[in-house]
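Running low. Invent one:
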Amino acid sequence: MKPSYREISCPRCQSTHIVRSGRTKEGEQRYRCQEKDCETKTFKLSYRYKACEVEIKEKIIEMTINGIGVRDTGRVLQINKNTVIKTLKKEFLANPNQSAFNDTTNPRNHGSTRGGA
């Protein structure tokens, strides 16, 4: 019988330079990306909780940029609202100068709108 191999790639950078990196307590295989520039620490091929998936994190940020609230985002993506907040905080701390989080068109971001002396 010929062994079958599955091509595994990093979910963040799509590199195929992957090594096994132990197992979870449930016995599922973890993998690690070997690319120097990749921010991925470890990943699994499938997750039990959807919020761990890279695509969900991208959708959280996209929905926030489009003005969707935290509770609505959690409800639509079927994840906890606290996970939405945690993901947004991590993204903001990682990219504090990103224009999506520093919207200059919103008057609330510029202090008082009252004309003063």
About this structure: DSSP finds three helices and two strands in the chain.
